[in-house]
């Protein structure tokens, strides 16, 4: 009984964007973590099918169950290992078993499939053959890459060096691990490797973070000592990554509207050793870009609320009309946030990211924003990355289980255009290669306004008055008889 209650509670929190599935499961302190995690993930995977069964049988009305608990119980009854609890719940589910089984059978006939797994969306089925590895980011605020590798080797892990091909990740097993190709502080392990109870994780020396989620901070790459905004910061992994890149120097303003998420984030940042941050329980859209507090902000990371459709354990479960309406509302909010980020007067670069696979939340938002902000342009990110943004925004990055072995993700970087000088047309795009350092492909700049002013002033100043008098005296002496 406790298993189903806890699973239902976590499902509800996931849908409310209060955390990732694995994080919520391990934070629950449930006795059998693996069993709980499997039940939550599988129920979420079949969520839309379970919703259809529950609706067609009017189960909620007849049993007074809440939707998330009903989904968990129906999953285990029809698809899982059977309802394992006793008491009233088991009696209730067995009473409605034949009706529920009939509803499932009708759905299979309608979709012309015979297996339960064939009911899943094509994207969900694809992920079964492309398991996401366990990514571990080394927290450079507390340790070094070499020290973590040495520590793990002493525990019996086998370090295989830096991966050179994506296919190398498919062969990880046991205690073998690799260093990531793109992010030097990211280690890659078999998907079954668990670090939630490991000393390095509990001490904040390593951060359990998907590779795609590491890209925004890595690509923004704020210089040490800079002023940076993390606009929608919770749960905080990207914030701690930014702080590590900044070496805890400068100012890192982090905003989030959810007080509970911000409280959890504060604990995470404390464990990670972050000290340069300033947390605010505030709506980013209500932050005044002209405030003197943010006059030196040049870098902004914006990862706003989204559909979460790229997360393997989080699938859309609403009907198509509802989904379209929801995506339109999310895209409008995301565009509003992105436009707001560009209003900070000194901002030079803004990274926009989502964990969504939908074009409405990604390329369409960026395209609309650029149309309203001609002073900004796209940066061409990581030319050798396997998956690009949809045409024509191929400067952006996409990520997926099939092509990058990560969760679904989207990243774009908007950069302020240099002022045009001497009639030269500056390029529309700058390039950020694999190393993360910008390629200098803009023409050489003309002298600054200050330099031109100094030069012009020097040319316009009259000669020294005393020298002029001496020359006049000499001239008069020559004219005397």
Automatic annotation (TrEMBL):
S-adenosyl-L-methionine binds at residues 232-238, 256, 283, 303. Residues 421-481 are annotated as: Disordered. It comes from the Eukaryota. It holds the Pfam family NSUN5_fdxn-like. GO terms for biological process: rRNA base methylation. The active site is at residue 355. Keywords: Methyltransferase, RNA-binding, S-adenosyl-L-methionine, Transferase. Residues 467-481 have a biased composition (Basic residues). GO terms for molecular function: RNA binding; RNA methyltransferase activity. GO terms for cellular component: nucleolus. The keyword Ligase does not apply. The keyword Methyltransferase applies. Coiled coil: none annotated. Residues 124-417 form the SAM-dependent MTase RsmB/NOP-type domain. Belongs to the class I-like SAM-binding methyltransferase superfamily. RsmB/NOP family. This is SAM-dependent MTase RsmB/NOP-type domain-containing protein. It comes from Phoxinus phoxinus (Eurasian minnow).
